[in-house]
Automatic annotation (TrEMBL):
GO molecular function: DNA binding; DNA-binding transcription factor activity
InterPro entries (UniProt xref): GntR_C, TF_FadR/GntR_C, Tscrpt_reg_HTH_GntR, WH-like_DNA-bd_sf, WH_DNA-bd_sf
Keyword Transport: no
PANTHER family recorded: GNTR FAMILY REGULATORY PROTEIN (PTHR43537:SF44), TRANSCRIPTIONAL REGULATOR, GNTR FAMILY (PTHR43537)
Classification via Gene3D superfamilies: GntR ligand-binding domain-like, Winged helix-like DNA-binding domain superfamily/Winged helix DNA-binding domain
Protein name (record): FadR family transcriptional regulator
Domain spans labelled HTH gntR-type: 13-79
Length: 243
């Protein structure tokens, strides 16, 4: 017996990811609650083995999207059962007809915790973390003046991840992948402005500076203004006619 674990070939991993992504998108999109997902039918559709389909359904089950029912098979579950903070579920909902409501909910969530995370970072960040935040803010500012949306989103996600980690609260730090998913999802679905607002770029710089100066109140205020500006910028998506 080999002492080495079996390695799944890249093409198999890629096919598995395609199946999970396709089904996740459909469940979060247009598939009615209670739809039965037949393993054989899905195997024919994706050209995959029963084992591969079952593994994909297991992954979706772990995210709350499906559940096996005795005598019925695997069925799709209502949104109330989904892990709405799972980064994949965030992305799939942003592809759905419900995407604007998803965006609204995520911005409301950010407004609830990011200002306090910034205040904590101003009190708890180490000198190295402050240096990283200042560097990330400067990089974000520079990319905001170039035609590089992918690079900008990467830098924005990095800034917010560093901020949450610098808060010293490990639970808050676990929201970083959620924020990255919403930032990337907005870009992929064309829900971001063509160019970032100049004021937002300056405020990221000011926020990093406030954390470096150990000013929790200012850090909290700047973050609240940033999130509120993003909310106002996006509001017309779920409230047509809003200026």
């Amino acid at each position: 017996m080999s002492i080495f674990a079996a390695v799944t070939p890249p093409e198999v991993r890629d096919r598995h990811a395609v199946i999970v992504d396709a089904l996740g998108t459909e469940i979060c999109g247009t598939l009615p609650v209670g739809t039965v997902l037949n393993v054989d039918d899905l195997g024919t559709r994706f050209g995959a083995s029963r084992t591969a389909i079952r593994e994909a359904l297991r992954v979706l089950g772990a995210k709350g999207l499906v559940e096996p029912k005795r005598g019925r098979g695997t069925i799709t579950m209502p949104a109330g059962d989904w892990n709405l903070l799972d980064p994949d579920v965030v992305r799939w909902r942003l592809r759905s007809p419900d995407r604007f409501h998803q965006l609204k909910e995520m911005l409301e969530l950010r407004a609830a915790f990011e200002p306090e995370a910034s205040a904590l970072a101003a009190s708890c960040a180490t000198p190295d973390q402050v240096t990283e935040l200042l560097s990330a803010a400067a990089k974000l500012w520079g990319l905001g003046h170039r035609d590089d949306p992918e690079g900008f989103i990467e830098a924005d996600a990095t800034f917010h991840r560093l901020l949450l980690v610098a808060s010293g609260n490990r639970i808050l730090a676990q929201f970083a992948p959620v924020i990255e998913a919403i930032l990337r999802g907005r870009l992929e679905e064309g829900l971001t402005p063509e160019h970032p607002a100049e004021g937002a770029l300056d405020q990221h710089m000011a926020l990093a500076g406030a954390i470096g100066r150990r000013d929790p109140g200012e850090a909290r205020r700047l973050t609240r203004e940033l999130v509120e500006a993003t909310y106002a910028e996006s509001r017309s998506l779920w409230e047509p006619g809003t200026p």
